[in-house]
Amino acid sequence: MNLSKMLRFVRATGAVLVFVMAARQAPAQTLTTGTLAGVVADQQGGVLPGATITAVHQPTGTQYETVTGSDGRYQIPNVRVGGPYTVTATLSGFRVQKEENVNVALGEERSLEFKMPLATIAETVVVVGQATFNETRAGTAENVPAEAIQSLPTIQRGLFDFARTSPYFSVSPDSAGTDAFMSVAGRNPRYNSIQIDGAVNNDVFGIPATGTPGAQTGAQPISLDAIQEVQLVVAPYDVRQGGFTGGGINAVTKSGSNTFSGTGYWFGRNEKLTRSIPAIATTAVPSPADVKLEGFKDQQGGFSFGGPILRNKAFFFGNLDLGRKSLPTGFSADGSGGQAWGGLNSAGVASHLADLQQITSILKTQYGYDPGSFSEISTPINNNKVFLRTDFNVSPRNQLTVRLNYVKGSKQVSSTGVPNSTTYAFPTDFYTSNEKVWSPVAQLNTTAAHVFNEFRATYTRDRFTRTIPLPVFPFVRVDFSDGLNVRLGAENSSHANKLNQDIVEITDDMTWVMGKHTFVVGTHNEFLHFFNVFVQNLYGNYEFSAATTAGAIANLQSGFAQAYSRNFSNTSNPLEPAVFSVRQFGVYFGDQWRARSTLTLTYGVRLDVPNFPDTPHSTPLAVTAFGLHTDVVPALRASVSTGISAGAARRGRRCAAVLASSRAAPPMFGCPTSTAIQESTSRTSTPARSITTHG
């Protein structure tokens, strides 16, 4: 986009006028910290330049300091979330002013006004309470503080449970009862963003519906006991926040203090604390009794501990969280547990038990393969989470944080929603998803007179594999004449399924205060590398059917399949991986202008440039048949986002107005980058060929 087009584009956005009434306070979004700001004046209201403002975080002794400008204003960005703080204002010739028990929420600009009397008598005035109003807040956001996290009920003990506190966030569970879909303002879940300590915590390959690493194993991205505060944002007008068009969950983690402290916890449920499942009704048994989830259990326990390494200088915090879950499938072939698959006949016996026994006999005698038992099985879902964090007050102007989040999960499951009332899965059809995620983060906050810098480096290492029961057997499906079907053998999408993701993020934000303006300039860059092995139907996929159930079983016995599919590598390596990289570069500039005491304008521009350095594989058949060139990647184009918002206050009332935005609602800065394009024709999966036959 050349300069003239960009100027016309920005001018065109000024024609957009959308007013949004904010019913609740919406934080002036920052990613990991908060801000202290205000005006220092004398008792007659005259502003006092040169006053020294000192804020001390009492639990750790961390100290922040700045000086008021010519208009008496001060601002201290990048302060720790929480508190309490003691904030002191000093100026020669005036009495010292002090405010205690000040707490700062995530993303909040905490306003503290000081009126300083002349020092006719040497004394310190302590302010014990003050009503607060933040006129800089714009956008739609909500904070969930530590007190709410501790007191609100939660079943999954995850971030999504607290997303429900905002009416914009809608969370729906999957068949296993875990939070799978989080839609914000009606957007697809993959357009959301989750950040922990400012680091992007998304599954950038785009497989799990939750969009978080470890989700394919049912694991939460981080232990809830390690979370200090959560911020829920929709349409933020801060150039530092980008990469989503739905909503964002921004969480900051706990840290140690000058006091040793710890917690221990255990939570558990079993079948006595769950509802019964309606059994399948048949003509012979129209009103069967409900069945319990026998064998169900869900247990989670752990502990955390933190304290000083060196008082007022260095601190540590650690958390260990273990989850153990056993989830019954809810069906059995012989009616011994859960629902009797296919229902019961007039004799009270599972109606298709004889058919399944015949299939098992054929597989054992003719193919030497045992598909497993007829009883209900319980699938294990386990996860271990470890969190470690250290904080260092390197100097009065430099604070360093280094933390590690580790998640290991495993989950045994069959195809989505199987077994169910129409499909029975033998135990050999179940596969196990295994995933390990390491995420170290280093953040350095530096403070000067009126300049503040926040540098953050993140590395995420995600290793995912699927394992199948041994010995390996092709995927087999037998269709019954009444619309039911049976599955056995290795699940067809798990024959060769491995994904490695390595993600590096580099972010640097510099903020400086100049009069009534607070400028921010920064860059956010992501470097993604993928190693993916995915060969569906590597061992074959057989389907047997006929006009009658007996005929379908006879076809199985004779080896006469009505459909057969097999994929194989297009190279000499049967497990040829797809290895490719994606990069995204972002730069931005913003300004927060306090035009009046009751009016604050926030505006900025952000430029995001995605880059695909690898060339996908060419598929000549796609070119011949459809004119589609699969070896062409999106052209290198910049995504330009602009936005202006205004926050106004009059007599304690709050409103926010969106003056201009270059995007339709919900407004945002930066676009999420799609990584997995088209599996069979791109570099995102194994180059493969497919054989499919139908009888």
Q: Describe it for me?
A:
There is one protein chain. The longest helix has 15 residues. The radius of gyration is 30 Å and the shape is elongated. It is built from six helices and 38 strands. About 10% of the residues have low confidence. Helix content is 8%, strand content 47%. The chain has a 14-stranded antiparallel β-sheet, with no helix packed on it. Strands 25-29-28-32-33-38 form a six-stranded mixed β-sheet. Strands 4-3-6-7-10 form a five-stranded mixed β-sheet, with no helix packed on it. It is mostly beta strands and 695 residues long. The protein has two domains: 99 residues, Carboxypeptidase-like, regulatory domain (Immunoglobulin-like), CATH 2.60.40.1120; 434 residues, Maltoporin, Chain A (Beta Barrel), CATH 2.40.170.
The percentage helix is: under 10%
Shape: elongated
Count of β-strands: 38
Q: Spans of 5+ residues with little confidence (pLDDT < 50)?
A: 5-29, 128-136, 649-671, 673-683
User: Under the CATH scheme, which class of the largest domain?
Assistant: Mainly Beta
- Overall mean confidence score, pLDDT: 81
How many discrete domains?
Answer: 2
Report the major sheet.
14 strands, antiparallel
Strand content: over 45%
Q: How far apart, in Å, are the first and last alpha carbons?
A: 55 Å
Name of the CATH architecture of the largest domain: Beta Barrel
What gyration radius follows from the Cα positions, in whole Å?
Answer: 30 Å
The neighbouring-strand order within the major sheet is: 1-37-36-35-34-31-30-27-26-24-23-20-19-18
Looking at CATH, which topology of the largest domain would you report? Answer: Maltoporin, Chain A
Number of helices: 6
Alpha-beta classification: mainly beta
